Each structure stands twice: as structure tokens, then as C-alpha cells.
DNA sequence: CGGCTGGTTGACGAGCGTCAACGAGCGTGG
DNA sequence: CCACGCTCGTTGACGCTCGTCAACCAGCCG
């Protein structure tokens, strides 16, 4: 299961790559780009595949081309918490540390483009733009993490669920028509994942979702497709 | 109350400054250092003073010379959560964003050395070392934030309290003799702050502390001085 | 058909929040 | 000097929310 990041490796034809103008590739000049491309590997991972284990050595970084990756931490007795969700075209990896402090797992089908750790780090030395881009992503992740800390520490179960749905609606909306007051998206997480994300149990997640459905704030189809007819009503349940 | 960061401003004699060889100052070369020093201001803030408000414009960055700063976020109905604690010689500020998304407040007496925002940002453009240093701090803060997310989402009240005490014990130990199995430190936070940090109420904090005292795992003097005779026993209560 | 995974629903109870009373320390003002 | 008000912390009684345990259903695959 481990090491899925490396199987299915095919030479990358960057010219046609959807990530060429996004993520870290977009900051590189032509020469750097060619150098990085030479060592890159495109790979796919099935939903649930482990990409990186806690306390495991990191030897490759990657950018997410499509799909959702969840970052988790686990206590010794098995209690688990999702501490980050990453979407395309996020950068995956923790510079300046040789061992991972968390697990990375594919939450959906995921396509990655990975590079050797030292190639990226060398390039970071040479290219302030690259480092700046990564710094910005880290700052954004930090802002997000702090937003979630408020959610985990201070919101009730139903506010947590509503907040999560709002977040997914926003993520879906950004690639969709903007300024809409309704939303429709596929949940990228299972009930168990949602529970691990919100610091709840699957039963509580399930109950809160059916409550939102009974209150006609959302429709659920096939357990995964969510339709929000009125985002304001959902937002009103999110706390903030 | 606001703007305490600017009062008490005195010219900084950097030569004798305890922060000269720590924090961002340590990464600057002589020329840069002189330039930054010219615009720096040393200032003190009393415990409880607001350093920066949510949605307020940021016009100065700072390094913490002594004391503890708490970063908080507040929901519209007043529920509050501490999302970060910063100690000397941390850098205070959020580059690449003009408005703050959180409140910064002095948790203890605090001494800061502040610089104009644009001076620091100009210097970040010129000095990759400076940017790298800030990037590293952001990554460390991100690691910490994720650690706390596990705590907030998955730990019980007593585990939360124990974890917090362990964290303070470590912070105190790093400046003290190392490798000790006991600890003794002043709580830099009030019961209300602890509650806001752990996502609990002050009553629960109080109850859990007296439980640890009754179980002889800690001694409490004057409500603030904590003595931990056996760190392993405390650690065993912290979960992980 | 049976087993398995993922989700829902119900009954029950523990943990922690809420509300309230109370004590200690401390500065203020008479 | 004591009375007082205030803040901060502790303790108790009570109840709600959410976790626990269990049964059950739907879909899927062998």
C-alpha cells in the first residue's frame, strides 16, 4: 500500500500537463523548469492509498494534479485527527525536515507529480520566487489550520458540519459559476473522514447530516452528492 | 488600549539588545542590520494589552524580546479560541496580507522590537536568508498548530490539561538544566486563557488542575507556580 | 447466498458545559 | 483601620450534548 506514489510512473510530458501553469511549476523559469521536469514522475493513487507515513523518511516532494489528499495524525491508542486537506495544485511535503510528522493519504483518486527532495531543495536555494511561493502556501495553510482550531475548540457538532459543507461548497464554487447562492458538489470524504476532520464520531456526523436534510437545508443523493439550495441558510448554521 | 505596541518607544541600542543574535536579526548581514535598526522601535506592553486587532491594518512587524503573546480568534457570539502562543524570539506578523485575521494580545508583560512593514518586506526581497528564516518559523508554527488540532479534536479534558503543562514544562526546561525529570515554572496564562487555549471552560480547567493536584502529579503555589515532581507521570496523562 | 463495507438510527450514559454560590487577594475610599 | 467592590479561582448541583454500544439496512463482490 505504501509507496503508491512511485508506481504507475510514466514520463511526464509537461507541455500538456494541466499543472504547468499552476503550483510550483508556474514560478520556475524555462531553464529550471526543464531541469525539474527531467526528474519528475507522474503517478496515480487510489482512494485510501497511503502516500506518506508518520516518522517515515521523506525523499520526494510532489504537487497535486487532481484529487484530494488528507493529512492525519494519530494518537497511540488509535484516535485519529485530520489536520489538513490539500487540493490541486498544492505542494505536498515538509521542507527542512527529514522525517514526516504526519500521514498523508489519498482521500479520493489522486494524481501527483513528484520530484526528488534534493532537486527541489537545490532549486529553492537558487530561486527566491520558488521559496516565496512555498512560503505563501505555508502561510495559507497556517491560516486555515487556525480557522480549524476555532472550529475544533469552540463550535458545536452541527456548526462543525455546516462549516465543513460551506468549505466544500466554496471549493466547488471557485471552479464553477461564481456568486451563486446555491451549490452542488460531491463530498470528497467518507463519514469516517468527516468525523476525523471535525473531531466527532461517525454517528454524530450522520445524525447532524440527517438533521440538516430534515430541515431542508441540504439534499443528499447517493450518500455523496450534496445539494445546497440556499447557501445563506447553511451559512447561518455555521457559527462564525 | 490598542496601539500599546507604539508607546514607550525608545531608540534601540541594538548592540546591547538581547535579541541581536536571535530571531530575524541573526540572519541579517551588517549592512542590512544597520538599516533595519534605524527604523526599529523597542516597546513594552502590559499583560492583557492588545497588540493587534482582527481585521486591523498591519503596518508594523515585530520580534518578541521577552514575554508571551497569545493569538486569538473570536466567533460573532463571543466564543474565543487561542490559536497560537508565541515566545521570544519569535517574529510577530503575517507577511503578504494587509489585514490581520486574528487578535494578538500580551499574555504576560511583553517587550517587543518593531519595524515598519515595508522595511521588512523590502529586506525580504533582498535577503533570501531572511525569507528562509521566516519560512522556517511558519513551518514550525504549522507543525504546532497541527499538534494542537489533534489535542482540540481528540483529547479529553484531563489529557488537554496535562499536554499543556508538558508544553510549558518543556519551554521552561529548554532555558534551564536539560534532561531533568522534574520541572518548575510559572504559568504564563490565566485560567481563562488556558480554557480558551484548550477549548474548555474555566470551571473544567480548574477541576482538572485540582484533580492533578489531588493525584500528587503537580503542586500549585499561588495559583500560578507549578511544580512537577515527575514529568513521566505527567506525560502519561497527556495521551499522545 | 453470505460476508463485508459504509451509513443510519435508537437507547443509554458519561463528560463537560451551565449556573450559582463562595473564598482569597487586592486596591480604593471612607 | 475596616468596609467595599472587583477580579480570579474553586467547588457543587444539574442537565445537555455528544460518545458508546448495538441493531439494522443498502450496496457490492465473491
Automatic annotation (TrEMBL), chains A, B:
Cite the Pfam families for this sequence.
Answer: cNMP_binding, HTH_Crp_2
Recite the UniProt keywords alphabetically.
DNA-binding, Transcription, Transcription regulation
SMART domains per record? cNMP, HTH_CRP
Span of domain HTH crp-type: 155-232
Q: Any idea where the Cyclic nucleotide-binding domain is?
A: 24-141
Task: Look up keyword Transcription and say if it applies.
Answer: yes
Which PANTHER family does the UniProt entry name for this protein? CRP FAMILY TRANSCRIPTIONAL REGULATORY PROTEIN, FUMARATE AND NITRATE REDUCTION REGULATORY PROTEIN
Q: Write down what this protein is called.
A: CRP/FNR family transcriptional regulator
Amino acid at each position: 500500500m505504501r509507496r503508491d506514489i512511485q508506481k504507475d510512473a510514466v514520463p511526464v510530458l509537461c507541455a500538456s500537463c494541466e499543472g504547468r501553469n499552476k503550483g510550483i511549476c508556474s514560478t520556475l523559469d524555462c531553464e529550471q523548469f526543464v531541469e525539474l521536469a527531467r526528474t519528475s514522475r507522474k503517478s496515480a493513487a487510489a482512494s485510501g492509498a497511503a502516500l506518506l507515513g508518520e516518522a517515515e523518511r521523506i525523499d520526494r516532494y510532489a504537487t497535486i494534479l487532481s484529487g484530494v489528499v488528507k493529512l492525519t495524525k494519530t494518537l497511540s491508542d488509535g484516535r485519529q485527527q485530520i489536520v489538513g486537506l490539500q487540493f490541486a495544485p498544492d505542494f505536498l511535503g515538509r521542507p527542512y525536515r527529514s522525517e514526516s510528522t504526519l500521514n498523508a493519504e489519498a482521500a479520493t483518486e489522486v494524481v501527483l507529480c513528484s520530484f526528488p527532495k534534493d532537486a527541489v531543495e537545490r532549486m529553492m536555494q537558487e530561486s527566491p520566487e520558488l521559496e516565496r511561493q512555498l512560503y505563501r502556501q505555508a502561510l495559507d495553510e497556517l491560516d486555515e489550520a487556525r480557522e480549524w482550531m476555532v472550529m475544533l475548540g469552540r463550535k458545536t457538532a452541527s456548526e462543525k458540519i455546516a462549516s465543513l459543507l460551506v468549505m466544500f461548497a466554496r471549493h466547488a464554487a471557485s471552479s464553477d459559476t461564481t456568486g451563486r447562492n446555491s451549490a452542488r458538489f460531491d463530498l470528497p470524504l467518507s463519514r469516517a473522514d468527516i468525523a476525523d476532520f471535525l473531531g466527532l464520531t461517525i454517528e454524530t456526523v450522520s445524525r447532524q447530516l440527517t438533521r440538516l436534510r430534515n430541515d431542508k437545508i441540504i439534499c443528499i443523493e447517493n450518500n455523496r452528492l450534496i445539494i445546497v439550495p440556499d447557501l445563506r441558510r447553511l451559512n447561518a448554521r455555521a457559527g462564525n
